[in-house]
Amino acid sequence: MPELLGHSLLAGLLAWSTVAHAHIVRVEADFNSLGAAIKTYRITTGTFPPPEQGLQALITRPASLPEGAPWVQVLRKIPLDPWDHPYHYVMGEGFEDGFGLYSCGKDGRTSSAGNDPDDHNTWDQKSFDDPDPEAGQRLKLIAGSAAAACMAFYLGRLSARRLPHKAVGAGGGT
Question: Are 30 and 81 in contact (CB under 8 A)?
Fold first, then answer.
């Protein structure tokens, strides 16, 4: 039973780390697909989606487009980030492609338009770094210790089963 607990603990720690990493990978993938959709919109209409409509312009024709101007629905729906919050679209000359995207992260809030420590954005690769690298190191240490403890326990039980047992009697034995 203790080895089952140790294995469960290790599996839980590794799953938690994997889920956190999967969220980051998903945000990056969503940024790539949304970025491609925005570029397709720009090629089709000759302009970026209007800031007042934002990403919705990829699925609903903006009222600000002139009558008869080309437009095509680029996406069926706008994805939510891994924490079920909307992605945000910003425009400006300071962005490499003329626009930027950001997620407010797990808490769903930002006080800096995508630059909070837990936010992820397209203009700063550091936003995809672990905001608490020491936590990652602690997690690795805990996981490694749990794995070593499970292995030591398992090997101890295995060797105890294989060792011959001598019966020690009252007469002192041979």
Answer: yes
